[in-house]
Amino acid sequence: MRALILATALCIPTFVFAAGSEDPTPPKPTQTTTECKSGMVWDEKTKSCVAPQESQLDDDVLYQAAREFAYAGQYDHSQAALRAMSDQNDDRVLTYMGFTTRKMGDVPAGMAYYNAALQVNPDNILARSYMGQAFVEAGQLGAAREQLKEIQARGGRESWSETSLKKAIETGDGYSY
């Protein structure tokens, strides 16, 4: 039985979770985007919607809210949740600030955030994937391929970051989360 489990595990692609920032699936909608309004975040303890900057929510809850907002296309609300996180130099914050800023149309500022995230954590393969997707959107396929090589060299083979960037290079389309 152990041999079967090991053989199965070796055949199934694995996903790398870099700095807690890589999740291969879109976030599931929670009360944050289904019940709360105007960028409020669901507080499980109080069972109510709270303003991210005025709440006692921990950084992981705020990060998940930021990710959920970004996936829902609510980039300004995502940024508000990110700005409420305690460490503004956290590479997760910088990566999603880059993503949301780029999606809001300011590509140079988005790239600056990605570069800042990579200064903090050169192994942040999610930042590399989003940066590569920005290069694809700008028609800079060589630069996108360089980021793909970096992802692979930094342990990101068969990760969401690698797969999404490969697909973006092939199709010319990026992802919204």
Automatic annotation (TrEMBL):
TPR repeats lie at residues 91-124. SUPFAM superfamilies: TPR-like (SSF48452). It comes from the Bacteria. PROSITE patterns: TPR. The keyword Signal applies. Residues 1-18 form the signal peptide. Keywords: Signal, TPR repeat. It holds the Pfam family TPR_19. The keyword Signal applies. This is Tetratricopeptide repeat protein.
